[in-house]
Design a protein that fits this description.
Layout lengths: L10 H18 L5 H15 L2 H13 L4 H6 L11 H14 L10 H10 L2 H23 L14
Protein name: Carboxymuconolactone decarboxylase family protein
Pfam families: CMD (PF02627)
GO molecular function: peroxiredoxin activity
Length: about 160
Amino acid sequence: MDARLDYSTDPTAAKVFKHLVAVGRTLKTSPLPSVTQELVALRVSQINGCAVCLDMHAKEAAAAGETSVRLNLVAAWREATVFTDAERAALELAEQGTRVADAADGVGDEVWARAATHYDAEQLTSLVVLISFMNAVNRLNIIARQPAGDYEVGQFH
């Protein structure tokens, strides 16, 4: 598959991606646990079908010590016994936050309340920003058909 746009040579993309990389770095240093960040990034990218982000976040999570069992079960987190209650709450919020068009009320109060029992206000802010950020980046990659498979761990750090 060939990309429709070459973000690496486009001057506008260079300006925009500088800020996107900065957002990603800021999230990495937020108080939201890094394993939760990678699981959420994977789930949002699975829902959206973003191969580039799936490649990146699976490799980053594995390099950080995440097990292949947990990585392989992210798509079926409801039925899997390998996730904590906090991770489940984050994954549920990620799903509803990604599928806002599927629900008349967007993210439900019960989903929000479950997440709020596990994360403080700063972590919830980080989680909401991460979900929104991943949806934006997924769309940039999907619309321009960015190919996946070449990501190297730490490439954007």
